[in-house]
Every structure is written in structure tokens, then in C-alpha cells.
């Protein structure tokens, strides 16, 4: 199979590289390499400004199923999107704070939203002006999403929903302007029935509260969000049909972004390889594991390219998640093993006024953060269930 790119792709590559080099200057130069999983606390304001810079350049919404320029975005082919993502990662451009709105909310609105909702929300996402977070998981409903208990009741006075409940592990909730919330809108309903996909403004003092969750890595990019009668201005899709909308959105979570992620993985692996070379050791077992990590990363890239255009393949996202989750976790273990005793050095201090740990070095943070890679975004057990039931046709597990 040919994994190469055509002449148009290479022309786009040169254009993307030139645009990034021209714009990653001034305050944005200081944000190079900042942000991303495990480091979302870094350079937040500069990265938010950078979203608007990307919007002015038309680089947001390249993969939307909408006419070129309909919302101020340029439409790129799948390979074109890969090219842009590769150049973005290669130049270590700032970690995106708008990716949830661009890659999850917007395609879902295009598929299920009304024309009015599309006109209201998509241009603001394309301009990098409004940021989104995802209100799915709850303390008692993580991997088992159908067990959510957050409820929304329609107010007869104004016809709007009032949302009450708690969401957890909400990435970028402190930065987001909006949250798409899966809530139970039919009292007494169970499992996936009676759920609705609601759009909730985050700036509702007294009705929406965000509390950071300090992780063992020291950072606090995940949050718990409490809704106390929060107003939901919009319902996407049919009332009570939120499960269908939610499943559509989850299918979008992995795609071109997987390739971007792998470029970051490659940089981390390169650092660990450099530490191993600098250590002067010649442990054949560690060397074999490092070679295996390199080979598996190449295989993941080929698999991601192969499945990129596999629309409707229920197993492809789960296979990808199983591959990268375990790979990244093993890399974290290798990182501290290569560091040796130095990796056991204690962290710095922490206080409620400064909710981020500053004492961890790169390898320590990599090790601690990757403990969660096989859990968040759908645990390994859930991914295996999906493959078994939806791809292999095995009987469902009894509940």
C-alpha cells in the first residue's frame, strides 16, 4: 500500500510550513511547545489568542463536511489535513485549546444540528472565538455512559431546559465558553433512552461551577463541573434522541488527530532514546524495548493512514485507542527506567493558590500522566467490548 502524498499535498505542505513560520513570532513564539495532554495549564492566554490567529488564516474546520469557505474555513482533503497536522506538530505549534469545538462539536452540528444552530455556532468556532468542552462522564457513569444521572427539565415559562447534575474529567472546562452536555430529559427513563444533547453556556454564575481536579502528575487540566439549574439554550437533534447524537460525536474523536498525536509521541521517544544513549549503559533488555517502541510507533502510523478513510468502520477507532494507549503507557515506564534513580526525585510544592505542580521534570510527568492513557477516552475493556460485539459479532456481556 502506498502511504505517500501527491504533488498538491507537497505544495500545501510548503504553504503550511511558510504560514506557520511567519506567524509563530512575538507572543506566539513563546507558546511554541506549550499545551497538550498533561500540559494544558501552559500558556493558556497565548494559546487562546493563537486560536484566533488560526481562524484568521482559515486553518480551523478543514475537515468539516461543509462548502469551502462557508464558515470562513478552507476545505482540505484527508491527505491535506494530514499534511497540515504534520507540519503543525513538526514545528511544535501551541497545543490547541479549540480542538473540542472544531473536531467534535462542529461535525456533530453539521450532521444533526439545525440550520440556525449551524449559523450560530460554526462561524465562531471557525474564527477561534468560542471554545467548547464536553459534558459526558459522571462520577457514576464514565465508561458506562448510558448510566448518566444529570437531569434537565424544561421550564414551562420560557421553554428552556434547566440542567442539574455533575460532570467529571471535563478537559478545558475553565477555558471553555460552552459545554455540550448529555442529560436525561425524560424522568424515569433508563440507559440510553430519554437522553438529550444540550448546549450550555459556561458563564452562568451560581448555576455552573468548575472545580479543578489535581492529578498525581501535578497538573489540573481535568475538572469536575456542577450544574445547578443551568440554562440550556439549545437541543441538538430530537429531544430524547441524544444517545444517537452522542455516539456520532464519539466516532469523531479519533482520526487525523491520531496522526498529530503520534508526532508528539515520536518526539517523546526521541528524548528517551537520547537519555538512554547519554546514560552510557548497554542493557540489552532496555535496548530491545526501545527498538520495539520505535517499530510499534511506525506500525501505528501506517494503521492510522490505512483506516483514515474507513467511514463507518466501528472497530477502527477502538483498535487505534488500544494501540496508542498501551504504547504511550509503556513509553512512560521506559522513560523513568532509563533515568534510573534520578527519576525518583521528589516533586516540588503545591498550594491551592497555585494549582499546578512545578517540580516534576518531563520524564516524571510522562510516566505519571500515561497511567491514565488506557482509561480516559474509553478504557481498554470498553474498546475490547466494542471490537468483540460490533466487529466480531460476539454475544454481548450480560448485565
UniProtKB/TrEMBL annotation:
<dbReference type="InterPro" id="IPR013786">
    <property type="entry name" value="AcylCoA_DH/ox_N"/>
</dbReference>
<dbReference type="Pfam" id="PF02771">
    <property type="entry name" value="Acyl-CoA_dh_N"/>
</dbReference>
<keyword id="KW-0285">Flavoprotein</keyword>
<feature type="domain" description="Acyl-CoA dehydrogenase/oxidase N-terminal">
    <location>
        <begin position="8"/>
        <end position="129"/>
    </location>
</feature>
<keyword id="KW-0560">Oxidoreductase</keyword>
<comment type="similarity">
    <text>Belongs to the acyl-CoA dehydrogenase family.</text>
</comment>
<dbReference type="InterPro" id="IPR036250">
    <property type="entry name" value="AcylCo_DH-like_C"/>
</dbReference>
<dbReference type="InterPro" id="IPR009100">
    <property type="entry name" value="AcylCoA_DH/oxidase_NM_dom_sf"/>
</dbReference>
<feature type="domain" description="Acyl-CoA oxidase/dehydrogenase middle">
    <location>
        <begin position="133"/>
        <end position="228"/>
    </location>
</feature>
<dbReference type="InterPro" id="IPR009075">
    <property type="entry name" value="AcylCo_DH/oxidase_C"/>
</dbReference>
<dbReference type="Pfam" id="PF02770">
    <property type="entry name" value="Acyl-CoA_dh_M"/>
</dbReference>
<keyword id="KW-0274">FAD</keyword>
<feature type="domain" description="Acyl-CoA dehydrogenase/oxidase C-terminal">
    <location>
        <begin position="240"/>
        <end position="392"/>
    </location>
</feature>
<dbReference type="InterPro" id="IPR052161">
    <property type="entry name" value="Mycobact_Acyl-CoA_DH"/>
</dbReference>
<dbReference type="InterPro" id="IPR037069">
    <property type="entry name" value="AcylCoA_DH/ox_N_sf"/>
</dbReference>
<dbReference type="InterPro" id="IPR006091">
    <property type="entry name" value="Acyl-CoA_Oxase/DH_mid-dom"/>
</dbReference>
<dbReference type="InterPro" id="IPR046373">
    <property type="entry name" value="Acyl-CoA_Oxase/DH_mid-dom_sf"/>
</dbReference>
<dbReference type="Pfam" id="PF00441">
    <property type="entry name" value="Acyl-CoA_dh_1"/>
</dbReference>
<protein>
    <submittedName>
        <fullName>Acyl-CoA dehydrogenase</fullName>
    </submittedName>
</protein>
Amino acid at each position: 500500500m502506498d502511504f505517500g502524498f501527491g504533488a498538491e499535498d507537497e505544495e500545501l505542505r510548503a504553504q503550511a510550513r511558510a504560514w506557520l513560520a511567519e506567524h509563530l513570532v512575538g507572543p506566539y513564539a513563546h507558546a511554541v511547545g506549550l499545551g497538550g495532554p498533561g500540559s494544558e495549564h501552559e500558556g493558556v492566554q497565548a494559546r487562546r489568542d493563537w486560536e484566533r490567529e488560526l481562524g484568521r488564516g482559515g486553518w480551523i474546520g478543514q475537515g468539516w463536511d461543509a462548502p469551502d469557505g462557508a464558515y470562513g474555513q478552507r476545505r482540505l482533503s484527508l491527505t491535506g489535513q494530514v499534511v497540515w497536522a504534520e507540519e503543525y506538530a513538526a514545528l511544535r505549534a501551541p497545543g490547541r485549546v479549540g480542538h473540542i469545538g472544531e473536531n467534535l462539536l462542529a461535525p456533530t452540528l453539521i450532521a444533526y444540528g439545525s440550520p440556525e444552530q449551524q449559523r450560530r455556532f460554526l462561524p465562531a468556532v471557525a474564527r477561534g472565538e468560542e471554545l467548547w468542552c464536553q459534558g459526558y462522564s459522571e462520577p457514576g457513569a464514565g465508561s458506562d455512559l448510558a448510566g448518566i444521572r444529570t437531569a434537565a427539565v424544561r421550564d414551562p415559562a420560557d421553554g428552556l431546559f434547566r440542567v442539574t447534575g455533575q460532570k467529571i474529567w471535563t478537559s478545558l472546562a475553565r477555558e471553555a465558553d460552552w459545554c455540550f452536555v448529555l442529560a436525561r430529559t425524560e424522568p424515569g427513563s433508563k440507559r440510553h433512552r430519554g437522553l438529550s444533547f444540550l448546549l450550555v453556556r459556561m458563564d452562568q454564575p451560581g448555576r455552573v461551577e468548575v472545580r479543578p481536579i489535581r492529578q498525581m502528575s501535578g497538573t489540573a487540566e481535568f475538572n469536575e463541573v456542577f450544574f445547578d439549574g443551568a440554562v440550556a439554550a439549545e437541543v441538538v437533534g430530537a429531544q430524547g434522541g441524544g444517545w444517537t447524537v452522542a455516539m456520532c460525536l464519539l466516532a469523531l474523536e479519533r482520526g487525523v488527530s491520531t496522526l498529530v498525536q503520534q508526532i508528539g509521541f515520536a518526539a517523546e521517544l526521541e528524548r528517551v532514546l537520547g537519555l538512554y544513549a547519554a546514560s552510557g549503559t548497554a542493557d540489552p533488555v532496555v535496548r530491545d524495548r526501545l527498538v520495539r517502541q520505535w517499530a510499534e510507533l511506525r506500525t501505528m502510523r501506517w494503521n492510522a493512514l490505512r483506516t483514515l478513510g474507513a467511514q463507518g468502520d466501528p472497530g477502527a477507532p477502538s483498535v487505534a485507542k488500544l494501540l496508542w494507549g498501551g504504547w504511550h503507557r509503556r513509553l512512560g515506564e521506559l522513560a523513568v527506567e532509563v533515568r534510573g534513580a534520578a527519576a525518583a526525585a521528589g516533586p516540588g510544592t503545591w498550594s491551592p493558590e497555585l494549582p499546578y505542580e512545578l517540580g516534576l521534570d518531563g520524564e516524571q510527568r510522562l510516566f505519571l500522566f500515561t497511567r491514565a492513557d488506557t482509561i480516559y477516552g474509553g478504557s481498554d475493556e470498553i474498546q475490547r467490548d466494542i471490537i468483540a460485539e460490533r466487529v466480531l459479532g460476539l454475544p454481548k456481556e450480560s448485565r
